[in-house]
Amino acid sequence: MPKTIANSILENFLGNAADWYKLTIILFLILNPILMVTAGPYITGWILVGEFIFCLAMALKCYPLQPGGLLAIEAVVLGLTTPETVFQKTESNFEVILLLIFMVAGIFFLKDMLLYIFTKILIRIRSKTLLSLIFCATSAFLSAFLDALTVTAVIITVAAGLFAVYHRVTSGKGFDEDHDHADDTGIGSETREDLENFRAFLRNLMMHGAVGTALGGVCTLVGEPQNLLIGEIAGWQFIEFFIRMAPVSIPVLIVGLLTCVAVERLKLVGYGAQMPMAARKILEEYDRREDENRTPRQNAALVIQALVAVFLVVALAFHWAEVGLIGLAVIVLATALTGIIEEHQLGHAFSEALPFTALLVVFFVIVGVIYDQHLFQPIIDYVFTLDQETQVPVFFAANGILSAISDNVFVATIYIYEIKEALDAGEITRAHFDQLTIAINTGTNIPSVATPNGQAAFLFLLTSALAPLIRLGYMRMVILALPYTITMSISGLLATIYIL
Hints:
Elements: H1 5-12, H2 19-38, H3 41-57, H4 65-78, H5 83-92, H6 94-108, H7 111-124, H8 128-145, H9 148-170, H10 189-217, H11 225-234, H12 238-266, H13 277-293, H14 296-317, H15 323-336, H16 343-350, H17 353-372, H18 377-384, H19 388-405, H20 408-424, H21 430-445, H22 456-462, H23 466-469, H24 474-498
Helix pairs in contact: 2-3, 2-4, 3-4, 3-17, 4-17, 5-17, 6-9, 6-15, 6-17, 7-9, 7-13, 8-9, 8-10, 8-12, 9-10, 9-13, 9-22, 10-12, 11-20, 12-21, 12-24, 14-15, 18-19, 19-20, 19-21, 19-24, 20-21
């Protein structure tokens, strides 16, 4: 019986996604206009936020750009937000977009050097706990002076390179043969358990590294995008910002690193996975072979990549330019000095970041809905009704919860302007303003590790090409982040109560 046009359209809709998922998205699209008429824009706005989070949670079933994009288009059509608001939110995050386009591509051209360094680290450090602590602490340190998305791009590049080496060899191919790393059909039953263990091992390291970006990002003026805005409004320079945040950020950093050790030692919520011996042998053989066969030209390329990496760190630390422009400089230097000058050689480097960049702009539509429909306003109004002593920890908690639902940059922007208006109107003192500012910054940075949509670095990891390879979905990220979420949020809350 020939297929009807209707059946073919349904089959094409969202491609290979499961039928139940397709029908769920269709149900959302039908339900929203009905809710708009019956329940009003405020309730519909909250329902839309929940639907978008569902799309993120099902990222391994279907990339969120398409279903999330359909919901975003419908939101604009229904009048929940406007194209002008979306453009304004996108424009205000132009630095992040430039970063994604150029910096992630720039890191791609340093991957040989990164793989060289981290392969040696992984095969020489046999203690999983020590290795996890190194990943977490290093990510924290780098994020404090560089940028969380840049650091996340580095660890994604490393993990993807290691997985590619192991999967290729385990599938019975040579180190240099072409191979589809997402295809497990060449994996024998006797090695499949090792493959799953290696995936779990890499998941652990990636989550330790991602949490590390939050631990370091909260500490300094340049750690996260909202920190710069908060520092500018508060009038704090780099050193003062660090000192102001220290009563909360330093205890949380210590607790976070102790949590890293604890979850590995106690093997909690999926942590404690060890590198399989087969994987270690493959990486050792790969490292030995690469060292033996590396040509003088390849050695020169490694040296150039290392020097470009030094330039990257120094340029970011001293803020010679916007992060995205530094990324463009990295692309130019790393390719011009290593002979990568053909257009087809450059194109693949941008394929990782551009889908996420498009998804981020779709996310700004949801942020626009939150903004235009004032979804957070009742919470903000309630917090300001509390006495001043109670406001500081409640600000921390409220910012954390809202950041986990939406986006920490957006939440911080709303709250910092609200308290600035209160200060200008004489409703609060400068000392209380400073305390609330610290609560806003730490609240948007620390509890937001609870979900991938809380921080751009986490969302980038969730939607990266690496995530499906190592089976890192939304709920698994939430579960793996849970110990950190609990310990870091509690320690941060206690610090706002007893130290600030």
